[in-house]
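FORM 7B: Structural annotation worksheet

SECTION A. Query
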Amino acid sequence: MKVKILADENVNYKIVQYLKSKNVDVVSLTDFHRGISDYEVIRLAKKLKAVILTEDSDFGTWAFSLKENINGVIYIRYKPEDYLEIGDTVVSLVDKYDKELYNRFITITKNKVRIRTL
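SECTION B. Predicted structure
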């Protein structure tokens, strides 16, 4: 089984399209579940057995402060013009770590990747 990614609706759709073009198993909330709460995103990710891809730092609060059981989070921070570099970083992580991305909180910026265990 390859890691599945659930892209929060705040993720630039160009990144989602790029990930799909690189054969990453990604589903976007923009396609079918707009406007749901963060908690509902977490529940849906559990149901889909997916890691959440987001630009929303609140998922860090859910994971670390509120101790919510989350499959995993890839939190991306970038300038819009850097979306391809961020996309490449996500693809590299999926290729390198695959299922090991579960139970991790990963922060990606243009120049850095930080991986923490949940």
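SECTION C. Observations
The two ends are 21 Å apart (CA to CA). The chain has one domain: 4-117.

SECTION D. Sign-off
Analyst initials: ____
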